Amino acid sequence: MVGLPASDENWRAQCQVQFGMPPKTDLRRLAQHNGAVVGVIPVNRMTRLIQDLPGQPHIRELADIGADGRGAVWYEFRGSSQQGRRPRVWLKVQALLTLTCQRCLSDMLFLVNETVQFELFADENTANAVEAVDEGDPDAPEPLVADGPVDLVQMVEDQLILAVPYVPKHHACEPAKTSAGEPVEEVKRESPFKVLEGLKRGSK
Ligand SMILES: [Zn+2]
Fold it and tell me: Which of 200, 13, 178 is nearest to 94 (CA)?
């Protein structure tokens, strides 16, 4: 069964101090202070992400978040600055998204649980130069040009879009079932012509 990791329950509870859209944030300043920004955003506010997905549960306030957590996106930005290296920011994102299985075309739950590390640059040229050196190193942080306040929601949404599989599929698709959970059974019905014949005979 796909679900949010129980081991991160406390982490998600801490994120829930801030609900809704966070203000734009200067990530370089966040890194300088070794600060953090945490929060929860309704997935339906991420229009680029949901445009090709089936309907996600509507969350208008914290109390709307159900036991399985669908419809909510938890995030944490954590800055770090150390002597002798560029400022960095870690981003952790968790969400349980509803996707459409491309084999049976029914809904499937998909867990996004990502942590990315960004190295901050003041300008594009330095970022490109360092990216060229780091190319091929899977542990190298992502270069990010941060020369002012950035939209945190956009960054969270980008990570979700990258995490969603291009062709989502269940590991094993379920056979079709009725709403009561019974396997679909064909009901034998009398041919309408036979019924009509019976009526004719009866009327004579
Ligand atoms: Zn399926």
Answer: 13
